[in-house]
Amino acid sequence: MTIPPAASPDRIFDLSGRRVLVTGASSGLGRRMAQVLVQAGATVAVTARRAERLEELAGESDAIVPFPADLASASDREALVAAVEERLGGIDVLVNNAGTADPKPIERESLDDFMHMLEVNLVSAWHLSKLAGVGMVERGDGSIVNIASIIGLVAATPIKQTGYPAAKGGLVTLTKELAVQWARKGVRVNAICPGWFETEMTEELVGTEKGDDFIASNTPLQRAGQVHEIDGALLLLASDAGSYITGSTLVVDGGWTAR
C-alpha cells in the first residue's frame, strides 16, 4: 500500500464542495457547528423550528441555507431531506444535533413526555440518517455525526430524567450499528458525546452559582465547556481527517466520565 505524502492540516480538514445538513442549528452547539463547517469550505443547510433564527444565521454567509422544520414530525423530516437534496444536489455530511430535554423525576414524567424525548432525540436521528443515507450509499461516500451526550453514557441524576438519557444512550448504540451496516458502503457513522456546555439548553444550570459549583466539583477540568471546544471533534469526524474512524463515540466532557 502506497502511503501518500504528509498533507497540511488545512487540506485534511478541508470540506470544500461538501454539502452538509445540520439539525438544531438555531442556537448553541448547532449554530456553532454550522459556522465552523462553513469556515472549512462546506455548503451548510441548517434546520430548526425557529425560522427567524435560521434566517439570521444564514445572513452570515451565502454558504448557509435555511430550511425550517419541526423534527418531531415524520412528514417534516421527509420534506426536509427532499428539499435539501433538491436545493444542494445531495447530502454528504449529516449532523444530527437537534435535541430537547425536560428534567424531572420519573414520578412526574408522563408517557407522552418520555415518547417526545425519544422522538426528538433518537427517532429523528434514525429517520434522517435513513433518508440521507440512501444517497450516501448510492454515491459510496458520506459521514454522519450524531450528537449524543455524556448522559447517554452515565446516569443524569442528580439532574433527574429518564427520557433524555434513554434516547441519548440509544443514539450511541444506533451509531455503532449504522457504522457496521454501512462500513463497506463508504459511509462513516460516529457520535460526539458533549459534557456540560454553556448553551441555551443548559442556561438554568450553567452560569448559575450553584450550577457552576456542581460542574466544577465533578469535572476534572473544573468548568463547563464553551461552544468553540466542540469544533475539533466535529471537523475530525466530518472530514477526511477521520477517514478511518467509524462506529466511535468521541467524548468531549472535560473529564466528567473519566472519574
List strands and helices in order, with pairings.
Elements: H1 9-12, E1 19-23, H2 28-39, E2 43-47, H3 51-58, E3 64-66, H4 74-88, E4 93-96, H5 111-139, E5 142-147, H6 163-182, E6 187-194, H7 209-218, H8 231-238, E7 249-252
Parallel strand pairs: 1-2, 1-4, 2-3, 4-5, 5-6, 6-7
Helix pairs in contact: 4-5, 5-6
Q: What keyword list fits this structure?
A:
alpha/beta; 8 helices; Rossmann fold; 259 residues; 7-stranded parallel sheet
Tell me briefly what this model is.
The protein is α/β, with parallel strands linked by helices and 259 residues long. It has helices at 9-12, 28-39, 51-58, 74-88, 111-139, 163-182, 209-218, 231-238, and strands spanning 19-23, 43-47, 64-66, 93-96, 142-147, 187-194, 249-252.
Describe the structure.
The protein has 259 residues and is of the alpha/beta class. It has a single domain (9-199, 226-251), classed as NAD(P)-binding Rossmann-like Domain (Rossmann fold), CATH 3.40.50.720. The protein is built from eight helices and seven strands. A seven-stranded parallel beta sheet has the order 3-2-1-4-5-6-7, with helices on both faces. Helix 4 (74-88) packs parallel to helix 5 and helix 5 (111-139) runs parallel beside helix 6. The termini are far apart. 42% of the residues are buried.
Question: CATH topology, anyone?
Answer: Rossmann fold
DSSP summary: helix tally: 8
Q: What does the largest sheet look like? A: 7 strands, parallel
- The mean pLDDT is 95
What is the total number of structural domains? 1
What is the annotated CATH architecture? 3-Layer(aba) Sandwich
Q: Percent of residues in helical segments?
A: 40-55%
What is the structural class? alpha/beta
Structural shape: globular
SSE string: HEHEHEHEHEHEHHE
CATH class: Alpha Beta
Query: Any low-confidence stretches, pLDDT <50, length ≥5?
Result: none
Strand order of the largest sheet: 3-2-1-4-5-6-7
Termini distance? 41 Å
| Computed Rg | 18 Å
Strand content: 5-15%
